[in-house]
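Standup notes
- DV: blocked on the single-chain target, sequence here:
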Amino acid sequence: MVRVYCLGNKYISEDSTALLFVDSTIDDFEFKEYHQDVKGDIMIMDVCKGIDSMQILDFDKFLERHPVSAHDFDIGMELKLLQATGQINKVKVIAIPFSWNYDQILEGLKNKNL
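- DV (later): unblocked, structure below
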């Protein structure tokens, strides 16, 4: 079972879509809300402006996008610090289009080779 940490801001509807998957299991993926005691290789899922299809990004590409909220800035900095201290290694990002709904994301997850 692969754990996917969902990011987002529950107070901004367009930024909270990934959080709809928290505490669910789809195929071999278990979706959880991100917390600070992550370790090793991790996978996160978040919405991204400027894309029109689901993409799998490496961490550096994810950080190139323009932050939508302070949350975006905070998580990038936090993950960089966790990498620098050796708590986490490789970070894989499931980037979902900002405008997608739950069903579109679900279909994308089932069609992607994660």
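- Follow-up: The longest strand covers residues 88-97.
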